[in-house]
Write a structure and sequence with these properties.
It is a single chain. The protein has 256 residues and is α/β, with parallel strands linked by helices. 34% of the residues lie in helices and 16% in strands. The protein has helices at 26-40, 74-84, 96-100, 104-112, 153-156, 162-169, 184-199, 214-217, 221-235; strands spanning 46-50, 65-68, 89-95, 118-123, 126-127, 133-134, 175-180, 205-210, 239-242. The protein has a seven-stranded mixed sheet, sandwiched between helices. The chain has a two-stranded antiparallel sheet with strand order 5-6. The radius of gyration is 17 Å and the shape is globular. The protein starts with 25 loop residues before the first helix and ends in a 14-residue tail after the last strand.
Amino acid sequence: MSVQPVMPKCWRVDTKPHKFCPGCGHGLVLKALGDAIDELGIQDRAVFGCDIGCSLLSWDFFNLDTVQTHHGRTTPVMTGIKRARPELICIAYMGDGGGYAIGSQHLVNAAVRNEKITVILANNTVYAMTGGQMAPTTMPDQKTETSPYGRDPLKMGYPMLGPEMVAAITREGAYVARGTIANLRQLKGYLKKALENQVAGNGFSFVEVLSSCPTNWRTNAEKTWKYIEEVMPKFFKVGEIKIPGTGRGMGEKTEI
């Protein structure tokens, strides 16, 4: 019988029960992130930054050095920390509003400059904390508090394809992927690669994660999971989009 090695306590990221709504995907994303940090053994030099919105409830979830920023400013704050202390592993965590709306200019500029940080963005297709308004990622025909008849792409535009945009504007050395809470093993792998890319000093790392919000979707468990597994991936393709050293860029994805 094989014996699994016991990881030293100092390497583990201790957590506690989260404060998110029942069925929220943030807890699963953060669980995968914590496991990735543990397996890489980088807890002692990792810094976690979280945005305003539902993501702010992660401010005391890990026993890591943590900073909570103003809405949309997590990316530049973590960029500043990384530039001042290059040896640190800087992780920016946010929702789709913080990354694709008020924080979009920071995401674009950090990606263009190839800042050596890791950005993780939870995409649940709505502004969740403020009542479920239409977000940059709201799906075509999806009903929200501010699109009660469904999002009409002809009037309101199409959902933001963040990873595809980041892959298009970054140079060699960037790592870009889109994961989902419906496949935690794959998601943890993407997060580990994003963190490893920063450890190696290659460049900007970005992982979007398809997440759930049954409170604002007004869905039960069955419908929530169906939306995550079947509906969202039809528009938001899951897979690795850009991998350093492979020549893989726009349009080449590893599907589920």
